[in-house]
């Protein structure tokens, strides 16, 4: 969502400026083009040079230092950007923006900004709660500025209150939501996509279970990529990993629970992507009390439902089924067999015998197999990129 976006990053005065450095780096890491402008008071906390070195671009502070005579700098940054991000937004700049003041580079550029504006207010709790500040927040919200709610927590003043600069992860998640809501005609708009993730747990007794090495990273990355393309995403996950708040998430533990949750959502879904590592077997009986130690132990297992196979028999011609194949040998031939047996439209085959891919790593290498096309390998790369390619395949298929 952030990749390739031009972001004008405005920094205003407050102790949270030091945290803004990290946020700016994260935006760059995610592929955004970032230009920074600061108020003079922001520069009292962290120098413009810090932002300049880390963004590798000059930082604007003074309205009257026009280095390039072919442009008016504060208008140029406003027109150049796809989005304006103000982080942190101080009570002072908030009041100026709400009343149309343009007395420094930042306020002048923001008054000239016709692009969507996202702001992260951060200040002392009493300043934030002050009715004048609240009135200014309302005014800006009415003018379609998106303002995050600050965190409640320990403030620089030594006491707890509302006004704290939120954690970077929360800012990124809300910023992604903001960017998506400002985009029109996304390819999966109006389509419901179910994604499963994680390794199911099959209980033996109240404190013991069998599971596998799936972390849920691959499935969660698919859910985020489908959401970025406009889908209504239902993530059915057995993984404890955090999920962005904008993804509708159903937490499950066992294969049986995953089966029920997926079937419940299936009828009006355009696609199901089964990235979960579903246990094929579950203990025949589940002890209600913790099992006592014995000389030896034999457990009997029964078969779990095969969710993908079951969906393959139920699906309509309009519904798309994507399965994974986790193999340690004969990757393509076993995956082809799964494509046939489970009536899938796409099988994503991955080799799970190596530690740098597959289970529980940040990267994966996969081969895409369909009934009609030649196998296509996506070489080792981040799971988010693999997920992006799979969602691109889905978009073409639905088209
Ligand atoms: O979670 P990560 O750590 O990021 O790791 C990602 C992954 C390796 C788990 C993922 O890329 C992957 O390969 N997921 C499928 C794992 C698996 O169970 O593969 P399988 O070959 O055993 O099953 C084939 C397909 O049938 C899968 O889509 C699986 O979800 C589905 N299945 C399997 C058994 C079952 N009872 N019901 C199913 O629906």
How would you describe this structure to a colleague?
The protein has 399 residues and is of the alpha/beta class. It folds into two domains: 6-181, Flavin prenyltransferase-like (Rossmann fold); 192-398, Rossmann fold. It contains 14 helices and 19 strands. The protein has helices at 17-29, 42-45, 48-55, 73-80, 91-98, 105-111, 125-129, 131-142, 168-181, 217-228, 255-266, 307-314, 331-341, 383-398; strands at residues 6-11, 33-38, 83-89, 117-121, 145-147, 151-154, 160-164, 192-197, 202-205, 208-210, 232-237, 248-251, 271-274, 281-283, 301-303, 320-327, 346-351, 363-369, 376-382. The strands form five sheets. The protein has an eight-stranded mixed β-sheet, sandwiched between helices. It has a five-stranded parallel β-sheet with strand order 2-1-3-4-5, sandwiched between helices. The longest helix has 16 residues, at 383-398. The radius of gyration is 25 Å and the shape is elongated. The mean pLDDT is 96. Bound molecules: ligand PMT. Residues 214-219, 255, 274-278, 280, 304, 306-308, 323-326, 338, 350, 352, 358-360 line the site of ligand PMT.
């Amino acid at each position: 969502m952030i990749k390739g976006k031009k972001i004008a990053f405005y920094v205003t005065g407050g102790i949270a400026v030091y945290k803004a450095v990290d946020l700016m780096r994260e935006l760059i890491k995610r592929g955004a083009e970032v230009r920074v402008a600061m108020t003079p008071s922001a520069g009292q906390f962290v120098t413009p040079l810090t932002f300049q070195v880390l963004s590798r671009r000059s930082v604007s502070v003074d309205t009257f230092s026009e280095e390039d005579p072919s442009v008016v700098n504060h208008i140029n940054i406003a027109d150049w950007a796809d989005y304006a991000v103000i982080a942190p937004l101080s009570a002072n700049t908030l009041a100026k923006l709400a009343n149309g003041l343009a007395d420094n580079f930042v306020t002048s550029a923001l008054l000239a900004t016709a692009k969507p504006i996202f702001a992260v207010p951060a200040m002392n709790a009493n300043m934030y709660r002050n009715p004048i500040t609240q009135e200014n927040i309302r005014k800006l919200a009415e003018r379609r500025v998106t303002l995050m709610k600050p965190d409640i927590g320990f403030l620089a003043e030594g006491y707890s209150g509302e006004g704290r600069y939120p954690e970077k992860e929360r800012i990124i998640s809300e910023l992604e939501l903001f960017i998506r809501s400002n985009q029109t005609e996304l390819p999966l708009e109006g389509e419901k996509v179910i994604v499963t993730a994680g390794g199911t747990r099959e209980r033996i007794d109240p404190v013991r279970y069998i599971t596998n090495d799936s972390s849920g990273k691959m499935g969660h990355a698919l859910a985020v990529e489908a959401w970025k393309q406009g889908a209504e995403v239902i993530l059915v996950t057995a993984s404890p990993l955090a999920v962005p708040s904008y993804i509708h998430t159903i937490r499950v533990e066992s294969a049986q629970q995953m089966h029920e949750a997926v079937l419940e959502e299936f009828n009006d879904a355009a696609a199901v992507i089964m990235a979960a590592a579903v246990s094929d077997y579950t203990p025949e009986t589940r002890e209600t009390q913790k099992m006592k130690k014995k000389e030896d132990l034999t457990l009997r297992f029964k078969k779990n439902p095969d969710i993908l196979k079951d969906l393959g028999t139920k699906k309509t011609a309009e519904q798309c089924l994507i399965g994974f194949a986790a193999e340690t040998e004969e990757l393509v031939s076993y995956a082809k067999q799964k494509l046939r047996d489970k009536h899938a439209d796409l099988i994503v085959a991955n080799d799970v015998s190596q530690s740098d891919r597959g289970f529980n790593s940040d990267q994966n290498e996969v081969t895409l197999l369909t009934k009609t096309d030649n196998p296509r390998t996506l070489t080792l790369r981040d799971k988010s990129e693999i997920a992006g390619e799979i969602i691109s395949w889905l978009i073409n298929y639905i088209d």
